[in-house]
Amino acid sequence: MKIAINTRFLLKDGLEGVGWVSYELLRRIVRDHPKDEFLFIFDRPYDESFVFGPNVRPIVIGPQARHPLLWYYWFERSLPRLLRREQPDLFFSLDGYCSLRTQVPTSLLIHDIAHQHFPDQVPWVSRHYYHHFVPRFLRRAERVLTVSHFTKADIVRRYAIAPDKITVVHNGSRKGFRVIEAAEQVAVRQRYAKGKPYFFYVGAVHPRKNIHRLIEAFDHFKERTGASHQLLIGGRFAWQTGTIRSAYENARHRDAIQLLGYLDETQHFRLMGASLAFDYLSVNEGFGLPVLEALHAEVPVVTTRRSSLPEVAGEAALYVENPEDTQEIARALERVSSDASLRRDLIARGRRQREQFSWERAAQQVYDQLRELYRGP
Prior knowledge:
Blueprint: E1 2-6, H1 18-32, E2 37-42, E3 56-60, H2 68-86, E4 90-93, E5 106-110, H3 114-117, H4 124-140, E6 143-146, H5 149-159, E7 166-168, H6 182-192, E8 198-202, H7 211-225, E9 230-234, H8 242-250, E10 257-261, H9 265-273, E11 277-280, H10 289-296, E12 301-304, H11 309-313, E13 318-320, H12 326-338, H13 340-353, H14 359-375
Parallel strand pairs: 1-2, 1-4, 2-3, 4-5, 5-6, 6-7, 8-9, 8-11, 9-10, 11-12, 12-13
Helix pairs in contact: 1-14, 7-8, 7-12
């Protein structure tokens, strides 16, 4: 097969979310299928580390697509021209977008449709792009892949897409997430948390992730307990983050809250592994990859029952039933920090739960879907 792939999110020193999923899936697919030819299509100069094998041919087409008008031009002008020239057997897109102006059989991986649930948290131009194009992309693609049963059901309910057109392919976890030895935990805490135990969040810094309420709950926790714990928040600020900035600026215990910004791999692995608990109170997730990463790092997880998160965490998390209730979040922080037996139990449950997810399995499932599409009418 000759497979053209949208690799816009393979960004050197900038892998997040879709980028990590692309990286983990594609390097395995390329490695395991050396007889296939892969066209990696970038929208900017690429790093050679993303050319995963001799059967990969990287191609750059403009413009750099990071705005709705440029998304439209890239997918509906530049990409169709390239596909006409290269004549691939298939086109695979991992970021939820595809082209409506190509006849090349298309497989689409979509992570969530959060814009439908929280339109006010999406900039106006992007929101209108999503509302107009996402249902068209889903109808255009011959195969749709999603990362959770929750997202599949959401798509079927919102857009009336046939369920048998959609296949669930769960994410896996990077191998760098591991148990951190006691001496290294001390060193991480000394460097990042004033030597204190800390709660940790990593991911997009966006209102949908409920970070403003986590900050408010941490204030309640500090006042209720007088504990020395810190709150460390990793990740770049996304759009519409005014509520998060306000929560941080108004926090009574702001000196115990660290906004770390983007974390490289080493920082991410160490900060996760040395944390007292990982707190992921998002109100809508397509998958919630950081929760699975915490299970591999053998760190207790505090999360919610919203969207896909119970699908990932199973019985290996302390659940907050109402993530809008900051007092309930504070009580969960207090409980997980004070109960060593609970932490040990959650970690043990996490060892079992994490076995359900594997990048190797996911890569094979994706390739099987591409092969079926290739053999189809």
